[in-house]
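note to self — DONT lose this again. spent like an hour looking for the file last time. sequence + predicted structure for the chain T wanted, 114 res
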Amino acid sequence: MDLNNDTTNANTVNPATNGQTQPASADKRKVKVDKEAVTQAIAKLTEAIADAAAQNIKQGLFHLPDTMHDALWVATDLVEKSQKFPNYKFTFYHQGMGEGTHTCAVTFVETTKT
């Protein structure tokens, strides 16, 4: 994914799954993101996951204001694809936990590869 291009194809949302990220399909959504915002979101998300891993935390929830929605969405995808944290599974939520929170969120859960 080229961060110099401000438009990228992102995963699509299936309302039946409560807003969780779904694999891209024929119904792709174009997302415009600011490179600096994505870089900041990657840094914050990476720091949160690294801190959790260092403390042997098996699962976590990271959230940002919904003004960072698209940046966090793309950042989550890039962090997952980077394989920097191969033992974690990521799920992006378009709305944070709780009504009226005005946030978006990512859960990360350590998985055991067999």
